[in-house]
């Protein structure tokens, strides 16, 4: 079974359920779902494109490969879809399925602060949650599973923890278990250390001339932070290339290595979705480990080559075998 489509469908469903109370993956195949899946897949494709005009402005005069034309066309299709979503919420706010969505809450704020919570802002928030929150989380889950399949001892230890904390109570993993399963969280931290979904963070630009660590930085300079290299620095991490969740066992790393572990960035522009991402990663990975016994598809190590996309996806999509664990037979009828 190939995991990638399942994991990205899962994260998109979670974010869309939060924002709009809708799922577009793995359920009914209606026209709206098809349209959304198409829009989202094109958004990710174009987001990963390097636009040369950003680096050599003169080249903005030419539209090589028709990139600008495609982005503009996609932009207006996305805007139409988002506007329909907002209008649908405006019409049906009282109905159960629309009552507790993020769009409905934003529309309530629009009543008291219309100049700030405009439709443009609401549509922008929906879009940024999809862009920044779905692929990053799905890619991390795929790397985590790949690491576990290459380290059956780690997988067994994580399963034992889940059996002790959750399955022993005859139930499935819940959100409240995410803080108790410390080894599971260490597996996630170690995955984010070796395979950060934002390997170069997000480019930042200085808004004024400034001095950083003695260097003069002119206004408008683009800064890239190589988190991938910092998190594998042999001066900081023992056996930096090894997958060892135990290195996060004690809290000491928080004082000694805090600035060297930055999968969510650092400072005022750090990832605002970090808390949500950690809960999502922990509950999804925990459920996959608790509910199924996993094995590699072939008797060779999973290929761990890193691709060049925005979120550093695996080059070879992960394929794995699984069978249900006894807990599933007990709780799912
Ligand atoms: C494993 C999951 C995730 C990873 C690894 C990740 C990583 C990052 C990184 C590295 C940045 C740039 C920080 C910087 O440049 O200093 C960022 C920014 C951002 N992230 Fe995440 N993220 C994840 C999940 C999420 C989720 C679930 C959401 C929301 C639903 C989200 C929303 C955002 C937003 C809105 C920004 C831009 C913040 C700004 O520019 O001020 N992220 N993320």
TrEMBL record:
Organism ancestry: Eukaryota, Viridiplantae, Streptophyta, Embryophyta, Tracheophyta
PANTHER family cross-referenced by the UniProt entry: CYTOCHROME P450 82C3-RELATED, CYTOCHROME P450, FAMILY 81, SUBFAMILY D, POLYPEPTIDE 5
Compartment annotation: Membrane
Protein name: Cytochrome P450 81D1
GO CC annotation terms, alphabetical: membrane
GO molecular function ontology, one term from the record: oxidoreductase activity, acting on paired donors, with incorporation or reduction of molecular oxygen
PROSITE patterns: CYTOCHROME_P450
Native species: Raphanus sativus
Cofactor: heme
């Amino acid at each position: 079974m190939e995991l990638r489509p399942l994991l990205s469908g899962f994260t998109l469903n979670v974010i869309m359920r939060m924002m709009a109370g809708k799922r577009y993956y793995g359920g009914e195949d209606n026209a709206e779902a098809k349209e959304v899946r198409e829009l989202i897949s094109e958004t990710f494709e174009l987001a990963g494109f390097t636009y040369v005009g950003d680096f050599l402005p003169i080249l903005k005069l030419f539209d090589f490969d028709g990139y600008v034309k495609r982005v503009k066309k996609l932009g207006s299709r996305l805007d139409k879809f988002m506007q329909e979503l907002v209008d649908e919420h405006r019409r049906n706010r009282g109905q159960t399925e629309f009552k507790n969505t993020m769009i409905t809450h934003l529309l309530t704020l629009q009543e008291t602060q219309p100049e700030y919570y405009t439709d443009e802002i609401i549509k922008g928030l929906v879009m940024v949650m999809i862009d920044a929150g779905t692929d990053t989380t799905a890619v991390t889950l795929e790397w985590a599973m790949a690491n576990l399949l290459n380290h059956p001892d780690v997988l067994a230890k994580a399963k034992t923890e889940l059996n002790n904390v959750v399955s022993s109570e005859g139930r499935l993993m819940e959100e409240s278990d995410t803080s108790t399963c410390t080894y599971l969280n260490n597996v996630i931290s170690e995955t984010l250390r070796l395979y950060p979904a934002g390997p170069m963070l997000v480019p930042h630009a200085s808004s004024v001339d400034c001095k950083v660590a003695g260097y003069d930085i002119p206004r408008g300079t683009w800064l890239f932070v190589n988190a991938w290299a910092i998190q594998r620095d042999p001066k900081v991490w023992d056996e930096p290339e090894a997958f060892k969740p135990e290195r996060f066992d004690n809290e000491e790393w928080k004082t000694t290595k805090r600035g060297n572990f930055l999968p969510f960035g650092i400072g005022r522009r750090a990832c605002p979705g970090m808390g949500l991402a950690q809960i999502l990663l922990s509950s999804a990975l925990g459920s996959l480990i608790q509910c199924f016994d996993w094995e590699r598809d072939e008797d060779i190590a999973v290929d761990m080559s890193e691709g060049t996309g925005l979120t550093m996806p695996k080059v070879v999509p992960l394929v794995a075998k699984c069978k249900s664990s006894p807990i599933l037979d007990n709780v799912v009828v």
